[in-house]
Structure formats: C-alpha cells, structure tokens
Write a structure and sequence with these properties.
By secondary structure, this protein is mostly beta strands. It has two helices and nine strands; from the N terminus they run βαββββββββα. Helices cover about 15% and strands about 45% of the residues. The strands form two sheets. Strands 1-7-8-9-2-3 form a six-stranded antiparallel sheet. The protein has a three-stranded antiparallel sheet with strand order 4-5-6, covered by helices on one side. β5 (about 40-50) and β6 (about 55-60) form a beta hairpin.
Length: about 100
C-alpha cells in the first residue's frame, strides 16, 4: 500500500468516469474543488439502497489529508457515516478502462 497527498488523489478522482464503492456499488462521483479549508467537502457519492432509501457519502479535506492507495483502489474516510461505510474503498474507472471491457 502507498500513501499519496489529497491533491494527487483529487486529480485521480477528477479523471474518474465512475467508481466502485467497496467493490459492489457503481456510482458516478461528484468531485468539487479543493479549497484548503477544514470541513470542505470535495467528493460526494450517492446511490439507492435495497430498502428504498438513499445512501450519501461525503468526504472532507481535513479527514483525508493523506490517502492510501493500492493498485486502482483508493481508501477514503467518511467521518459523517455511522455505518459500515466509515472507511471507503473506491476503485476508480476511467473512460479508457470502460471502453476496453
């Protein structure tokens, strides 16, 4: 496992066409700009769950100053989550990867 800066992780996320969350949920990420301000949310992920509800994850700069990566997997921390989604594994997919499938 390797650790990269938030700025490097942000650049990778901006290139993402879609991401897999914890290997099983495919979503399109909403990536906002970094502002260097504690509490600034730079990434949002959301999807409908099996119970008719909606799961929303948001990631702040202060909780993800350094980001662990392994291959195409990125590990981010969602501090507002009170579920199994506290530490999120994100597999980044780009247009090039999707076209080669």
């Amino acid at each position: 496992m390797k650790v990269i800066t938030l700025e490097e992780a942000h650049a990778l996320l901006k290139k993402a066409s879609a991401v897999f969350v914890n290997n099983d949920i495919l979503v399109r990420p909403i990536v906002d700009e970094l502002q260097g301000v504690p509490g600034n949310k730079f990434l949002y992920l959301g999807w409908a769950d099996n119970n008719g509800g909606y799961v929303t994850l948001s990631f702040s700069e202060e909780d993800n100053n350094e980001v662990a990566i392994s291959g195409k997997n990125m590990f981010l921390y969602d501090s507002e989550s009170e579920s199994e989604y506290d530490n999120i594994k994100i597999n980044i997919l780009t247009i090039e990867q999707l076209e080669n499938k």
